[in-house]
Amino acid sequence: MKLFEVYSDLSSFSEKTDIYGDFAHILWEGNASKKTRNVPIPEIYIDRLGPDVPEAYVSNRSLIVSQRIKDSLFTSGLTGFTAILAVKNKIIKCDWKNLSEDYFEKYYSIDDVIEKGRHNQSIADKMPNLWWIKANDSISFHKNSSQEWDYVINNESDFYYGAGDKLGVFVSEKAKSFMESLCLPLKYNEL
């Protein structure tokens, strides 16, 4: 079974804006923080710039998708995931797709763009619902060398989260093909 690690693909955004690295990541992905312990249902909180938001991205090892993509996943026949509605915890009004890097000169840290910004509920309301596509099954990784991994899959499905020596979001070839057919801004590295 072929497996792929999933990442945000910032290439077209970076080419358009000439913004790369941490600057590009904070604009594209924002911050996603999970609460999974001591709660009856896992939760995820989104802090980001808006109202524009990519249809799909990976933030803090979590696959975040729009309502439209979530609905498509549920009709795709893919298995091994639960969709959890994200809380739009802190949405800062910003036309982030049309910025230049000098926008950041007033901040001490790139994270300050979100941390020091004010939540704007009307902007949050303009955004689509965002969903955490939470993998139900894990892959246990053990690192053999700098480039080689051993891994164990307990249940075969289409979505996995990494455990052990490698964390992240992982999908089957079937899930990769389906998500590619939706032209999502994601990239995939085969394990």
What does this structure look like?
This protein has 191 residues and is of the alpha+beta class. It has one domain. 23% of the residues lie in helices and 38% in strands. It has six helices and 13 strands. The strands form three sheets. Strands 10-9-11-12-1-13 form a six-stranded mixed β-sheet. It has a four-stranded antiparallel β-sheet with strand order 4-5-8-6. The protein is globular and about 45 Å long. The N and C termini lie close together (10 Å). The mean pLDDT is 91.
Contiguous runs where pLDDT drops below 50 for at least 5 residues: none
Report the portion of residues in β strands.
35-45%
Overall morphology = globular
What sequence of helices (H) and strands (E) makes up the elements?
Answer: EHHEEEEHEEHHEEEEEHE
Distance between the termini: 10 Å
Summarize the structure.
The protein has 191 residues and is of the alpha+beta class. It has helices at 11-17, 21-29, 67-74, 112-115, 121-126, 173-181, and strands at 3-8, 31-35, 43-50, 56-59, 62-66, 81-85, 87-93, 130-135, 137-143, 149-153, 159-164, 169-172, 186-190. The model has no long low-confidence stretch (mean pLDDT 91).
Which terms summarize this structure?
alpha+beta; 6 helices; six-stranded mixed sheet; globular; four-stranded antiparallel sheet; 191 residues
